[in-house]
Amino acid sequence: MTFQKNYSLQKFNTFGLDVKASFFTEINDQEQAKLLLDQFQNQPIFILGGGSNILFTKNIEGIVVKNNILGIEIVDKNEENIWLKIGAGEIWQNLVQYCVAHDFGGIENLSLIYGSVGAAPIQNIGAYGVEVKDILENVIGINLENGQIQTFGKEDCKFGYRDSIFKQTFKGKILITHIVLKLTLKKHIFKTDYGDIQKVLAEKKVKNLSVKIISETICQIRQSKLPDPAVWGNCGSFFKNPEISEPKFKILQEKYPNVPSYPTQNGVKVPAGWLIEQAGLKGKRVGNVGTHEKQALVIVNYGNANGQQIWDFSKQIQAAVFEKFGVSLQAEVNIL
């Protein structure tokens, strides 16, 4: 391992923010991770994956570690299912493409989500009716406080909507090295009733569904709505879709009969993008920061905006939505 001082993280975050790390290094395997912990027991360590869900508002003190642990390994298999162990440094979309190419089912709705495999369970990433918890078996990681390797089963992860134990009790305390996914080999169960999937499938005149077709459809939908971070800096969805009580939703629905909604166990989920758009903020721009013209849920760095400017703009959105609807938006992106 080599360590670099005052290192720019601009190419390691999808907002393209030029913040500095006091020290920066990369790890390629579990042994290097253990060596790192032995050498820097009393130093703050920040683990960096794909940088696709982070807003840096300041320079990072301590050691920033880029997790490059790779590998896709079949660890078990039967007639119906296959279990894959994947290195945390793998790019999520590369994993999806691997599974699609081998006709492994369950992951196809999570196509074209930016970021690394290791970040997926932390955020419990999800899209079009599927979350990573639906296919995850285990998370394997190193406890940064004692150096011990720990394995977390699905229940141990305490998954919630864009939430997990790794964002709560173990926030910043676990270096995830691998995850294990359980996927289907046949009798795939396709989820196509969320968002524009049915519409696109009808336009394409699809008669027989497959893992490949669903993945391609999801990619087509996402590409039509979301800006490419390589062109315009962004982190995808900036806010969570708020969940409100049924009584509160009924009041909202009386005033706005066309409000879209999705029932949940605890109430009703309302799309944050719809709320932002109805507040008149879709495509709004302040300096080099703005909401995307095709998807109000995405905040874009249109130039050389810094993290604080993006954060301030997001707070303006929160205030406007709350003033109009009485609904609080919470950031999905991690703010540092």
Report what the structure shows:
It contains eight helices and 20 strands. By secondary structure, the protein is α+β, with helices and mostly antiparallel strands. The protein folds into three domains: 64 residues, 2-Layer Sandwich (Uridine Diphospho-n-acetylenolpyruvylglucosamine Reductase, domain 2); 113 residues, Uridine Diphospho-n-acetylenolpyruvylglucosamine Reductase, domain 3; 103 residues, Alpha-Beta Complex (Uridine Diphospho-n-acetylenolpyruvylglucosamine Reductase, domain 1), CATH 3.90.78. The strands form six sheets. A five-stranded antiparallel beta sheet has the order 6-7-12-10-11. A four-stranded mixed beta sheet has the order 1-2-5-3. It starts with a strand and ends with a strand.
Key features of this structure:
four-stranded mixed sheet; Uridine Diphospho-n-acetylenolpyruvylglucosamine Reductase, domain 3; five-stranded antiparallel sheet; alpha+beta; globular; Uridine Diphospho-n-acetylenolpyruvylglucosamine Reductase, domain 1; 8 helices; 25% helix; 3 domains; 336 residues; Uridine Diphospho-n-acetylenolpyruvylglucosamine Reductase, domain 2
Strand order of the largest sheet: 6-7-12-10-11
> Strand count, sense and closure of the main sheet?
5 strands, antiparallel
Catalogue the unreliable spans: none
Mind telling me the C-alpha Rg?
Answer: 20 Å
Q: Share of helix among residues?
A: 10-25%
CATH topology of the largest domain: Uridine Diphospho-n-acetylenolpyruvylglucosamine Reductase, domain 3
Number of E-state strands = 20
- Estimate the mean pLDDT confidence: 92
Overall 3D shape: globular
The fraction of residues assigned to DSSP E strands is 25-35%
- How far apart the termini lie comes to 25 Å
Helical stretch tally: 8
| CATH architecture descriptor text of the largest domain | 2-Layer Sandwich
Number of separate structural domains = 3
Oligomer: single chain
Helix-strand string:
EEHEEEEEHHEEEEEHHEEHEEHEEEHE
Structural class: alpha+beta
